[in-house]
Structures are given as structure tokens and as C-alpha cells.
Amino acid sequence: MARKPSPSRPSLPLLAAGLVVCAGLLMAPTLTRAMSGGPEPSAAPAAPSVTPVAPSVATPPPSALAAAQSAQPTAEPGTEPAASSAPASSGSFDYSQPAPASEEVDLSYFSDALFIGDSRTEGLELYSGISQAEGVSFYCYKGITVFDVMEQEPKKLIELGGSKYSIVDALSRESGKYKKVYLSLGVNELGYYDDQGFHDKFAALIDRVRETQPDAVIYLQNLAPVDPIQCAKNWPSYVSNEKVHTYNQIFRQLAEEKKVVLLDIFSALGDPDGVLDTENTVDGVHFTKAWYQTWLAYLRDHVVDPSQL
Length: 309
Known about the structure:
Strand order of the largest sheet: 2-1-5-6-7
Number of strands: 7
Helix content: 25-40%
Distance between the termini: 110 Å
Number of helices: 10
Shape: globular
Largest sheet: 5 strands, parallel
Order of helices and strands: HHEHEHEEHEHEHHEHH
Radius of gyration: 26 Å
Structural class: alpha/beta
Strand content: 5-15%
């Protein structure tokens, strides 16, 4: 009877090749993580479902920071923006300190003012009473960050004359229109890890405002505190007063570097301990109607005469 042929055995070269392939598959995830530089930065706060007294904050996509940083080079830590981007001060104003209290102005003062901000600035527009000032303008949108504003191809969120524009394009389209520009961004950026990148993007925004609105007094509003009690229920852990303090130090630095007027919203809306009282907020971050009115009251008696600058 004929013998059945023995099954062929793989040759040593084939076994060696197979081992190399398997090793490559096992190493691929490790190599991928090493080349990518680690996990992506945390996203900004997502909006809880709360009472509609104040607008909610949207979450930017996880890639927002990387896209924004690629839109404009980020300075190395410790470097300062070019000195030519800030005008020489001809007055006696101390940019290293928040604006001092002044005589209260009426609402007409804001008739040539522009407010740039996120959902809390929307709340100021809707609930404080400032919209009674004829001519006051708002470039604001819920969830927006300074990285969104200054990215290479920013979203078209501002409607002018029946068309929509990005904030930077709207500034150019309305070049020279405003005598005061109020900036209020930062709460949606609390989850980002790159403080130097935040500084540099904000510096770029200030430069763009000064370029397009050369006659305007630029008011840089620092961040109001948050309520830790409600934040623990509604927001991620990085929405904290510790992070607010970090960004407010950056704002103080920017005010002095860029020769813009710093407004101490943190002290105006916080209690003596530097906390947002639970009774003055709807979710730990946004304010009640009465507290938006308190914000406006602070703006009305903290104005600076351009001749001082």
C-alpha cells in the first residue's frame, strides 16, 4: 500500500519572517503612541442641562487646540511678544493694575462699544440691560474660545448686513467703528493644558483688535470666579478657581505687555473669599440676571479716559 506523503514543514527562513512580522505588530501601538506625543488635550467644559436663565457653554472639538496652534506659531515658553505690537504709553495710566473706580457713566457710553466673548457675554447682552444703549455691538457665541477666534479658518458666527463673518473678519469689515472694545474669553479654555499657547493666542487677538480698531480703548476683562459647589455637580474638575487664578495671572501679564486696560471682574463678581456665591449662579459658571446687572454696574464705574493712556 502506498504511503501517504508527510505534511511539509515550514522552512527556517519562513519561520524567521513570521516572527519578525509578529514582533512588528506587537510594537506598532507603542511606536504610534511615541510618535504622536501622548494623548490629546482635554476639551473645554460641556454645557450641563440647566435653567435657561443663562446661555450654556458648548464643548469645542478635541482638535481645536492643535488646529489653533498650527494657525499661528506659538512662542517658546519665556519669550515675550514683539514690543512693536503694543503702543508706547504717553499717559500716566498704570497698566500693571486693574482700572480704578471712576465716576459712573450712563448707558450711552456704550453706544460705540464692542463686546467680544462667549456665552457669559451673551448673558450680559440679554439680561444686564446694556442692550438699551443704542449702537452697542456684540461678537459673542456660546462655547467659543480664543483658539477658535484666532484659528486659520475660523467659523463664520457674526451676522453683518445679511452675511456671516468670523470675528476677525467682522473686525476688519467694521474697521475703525468702535471706541471701546471689551474682551471676555477664557472660561471655555480652562480644560486646555497649554498656558503659554493661551497667552500667545490672546496676545494675537489683542493685536488684531488694535489693528482694526486703532482708536478704541481695549478693556481686558479677567475671569470671574466659579462656585465650587455647583461646579462639582455640573462641570469637570478642571473648571476650578485654581485654574481661574492661573488665567487671571496671564491676563495681568497681557495687560501690561500689550498696554490694555485690565478690568477686575473676579473681584467684582466674587465674594471676599474669591468664590462665586451659589445664589448668584445658575450652574456654577453662568450668572443670575441680578449678577449680570452687577457686572454691568462694575463696567459703568470703571472707565478710563483715553487721554490718560
